[in-house]
Write a structure and sequence with these properties.
By secondary structure, the protein is mainly alpha-helical. The chain contains six helices and four strands, in the order ααβαβαβαβα.
């Protein structure tokens, strides 16, 4: 993958799939940055699926990488293939709501930013940094809970974490 932040995730993803689905296979489709999220990128995914008719899922590390893929899958006669992934956009939230996608993992980008600032502040002031510092909060978003997220396109916890951090920081 040309997106450097994805490279370290691949071995862990493959290991977890092998752990929970020993008979499953993970193939990585490498695309150029110019192709991801475009009709050219979607065509490459469809070509891969046609070459491997037993594939039932497409996983994307980012919702921006697969814009329009569900429509493309349907047009290609591959509507049985399920699209799942991390960091959904409004398009994926809508697909979950209307039953075209089973689930996505929401990533708490704003919350993670607050956690990163907290970790940095603790380190600078000599306070021990918790082992969880920098871990990105995630939530499985399904038809059961997608409506509760409203119009946001980044999952963030529903509790008032800014106030809690400010109280901790005494600001």
């Amino acid at each position: 993958p040309q997106v450097g932040s994805i490279r370290p995730q691949l071995p862990a993803f493959k290991a977890e799939v092998a752990r929970y689905c020993p008979g499953c296979q993970v193939d990585v489709l490498t695309q150029t940055l110019a192709d991801v999220g475009t009709s050219a990128g979607n065509s490459a995914i469809i070509s891969q699926l046609r070459t491997h008719p037993g594939y039932n899922y497409v996983f994307s590390s980012d919702g921006d990488f697969v814009h329009g893929l569900i429509s493309s899958l349907s047009s290609a006669g591959l509507s049985q293939v399920k699209l799942i992934g991390c960091d959904p956009t409004a398009e994926q939230y809508a697909n979950i709501s209307n039953g075209k996608a089973p689930a996505w993992l929401g990533q708490g980008s704003k919350f993670s930013s607050w956690m990163a600032v907290d970790a940095a502040a603790r380190w600078v002031t000599g306070i021990p940094v918790p082992t969880y510092a920098g871990v990105i909060g995630k939530q499985l978003i399904t038809a059961d809970n997608v409506q509760s997220l409203g119009s946001q396109t980044s999952y963030d916890p529903t509790f008032d974490y800014p106030s809690q951090f400010k109280a901790l920081w005494k600001v």
